[in-house]
Amino acid sequence: MLIAQDVASQLIKSLRVPLETIVSRDGALADQLRRAGSSVLLNIVEGHRRVGKDRAHHYRIAAGSAAEVAAALEIAAAWGYIPDAQLVEPRALVDRELALLWGLTRRRS
Question: Residue 5, by phi and psi: left (phi above 0), alpha (psi -120 to 50) or beta?
Fold first, then answer.
């Protein structure tokens, strides 16, 4: 298993509690956050089974989805839906995921 895959799984788990709070305040944002989080893991797994430019393409999509997760968390914090304390772990995992994906998109296949 790729480390990026493991981190993406941890990220999804870290989003459970914030999502419960966000869904009660903004269902559309919660849905977007849930779909983006799932997309990170799904694209990493699919990309791992591909070769060449197709592999990097899926890793770039995963990175875009990870950035979307970060933005959704920022929106939730800005609207006051969720306290910053609940976002420490998800934000750290998003940063780690983006760093891993950056490396994977620059690796020669």
Answer: alpha
**Measured distance CA(36)–CA(60) in Å, rounded:** 13
CB distance 15 to 40 below 8 Å: no
Nearest CA to 2 out of 33, 40, 37, 36 is that of 40
Grade residue 109 by pLDDT with cuts at 50, 70 and 90.
Answer: very low
Check which CATH number belongs to the domain holding 84 and give it: 1.20.1440.60
pTM for the full predicted model: 0.94
- Domain holding 91, by residue range, is 3-106
pLDDT in tens, 42-78: 999 999 999 888 999 999 999 999 999 999 999 999 9
Exposed/middle/buried for 88, CB within 10 Å: 0-12, 13-18, 19+?
exposed
Task: Look at phi and psi of residue 82 and say left if phi exceeds 0, alpha if psi is from -120 to 50, else beta.
Answer: beta
Number of structural domains, the chain? 1
